[in-house]
Amino acid sequence: MNSNINKNNNYPLTLDELPTFQSHKSLLNSIENENNNTDINYSPNTITTAIPNNTVVVTENSKLHAFTRFRYSNELRKKYEDHLEKTNHSEKELNIALNKLRNMIYEFGLPDGSEIMMNSYTASLRGKIWKILLGVYRVSASEYLKYVGKRKSKFYEKIKNDGFRTLRTDEKFKQKVTDNMIVRLLNAFVWSKEKEKIVSDVNCNFTYVQGMNVLAAPFLYVLPEMEAFYAFSTFIQYYCPLYVHSSLIGAHAGAKLLDMCLQIIDPELYDHLTKNQLTAEIYAFSSILSFCACTPPLQELLCLWDFLFAFGVHLNIIFVISQMIIIREELLNEKNPYHKLRNFPNLNAKLIIAVTISLIPKIPKEIYTKIVKHTHDYKTVEELLK
Questions:
Q1: How many domains does the chain have?
Q2: Please, what is the average pLDDT of the chain?
Q3: pTM (2 decimals)?
């Protein structure tokens, strides 16, 4: 999806604008209105999970015949590639194309192998799509090399130590992304933001904070290093600046919002956790701060990030709640649920997204607006943390 519009276009499409989401909400409402004793028969090729208020989320089983899956992936890849090749000559055309791209992600997801790069200097299909969704239309090799060529920043040792620990148990990641790549990118980021103010309501300088290494990792996995630098920088500066504030105030506000939402969505689970002195600050802060990147496997995380970049990084708060809803019975049966929450179960992107979509209509508009704003709006965060 090429564009001759030289600007960072963050098109504010929401899930509610998609016809497919409207249909899904209608389905959920009809299920909720059914009598509790009504029998619902599902295909054996589905995964189901119950959430509060008798809602059942249904997702298709991902186990397809190998040949069918291969053919489907190739056809879907071509569908995406054809869409990306189209040139847009106006902002209106670009917005329409972005809308279609988001709808494709909602309906189909990305094909298997979308993260594979043909060589070290060509972006993967997933990388190309992430850049478009984030509005990264400008990269400069000379500029990046200028930052890389600078001396070690004052955060270099901290970056180096964190870089060594990044996804260290993921062999595929370690084969593809070296510690040096992580260190170079993050050190260059520090230099690039040395005298730059955040472009938002917050008046503070960007700097390196612990956890940035985990956020940079997926970008380096799907993009060449230089392009990963610009995608990561855009993500940090325009989408979640308050998460990398020196006090991490955006993530702390996210924890507050998670508690508020859980109390509304599942009062029983919320009460059980609070009786055990468990708040989101204790059990979910790492998942919030890292946008779920602290939980394996990486392949499932990439699928979650596809959805986040398409419909808003704020949805990560609901992703975390969804992970808890999926294991709610286990949590309720635990006298000390912290043992279960200390390490979240492995990510299942399809199920987490399905549960998330079913939960959104349950959140009051006022709270949902705060969820949308908490990653970048200082006034919203200040109100939540006062």
A1: 2
A2: 85
A3: 0.86
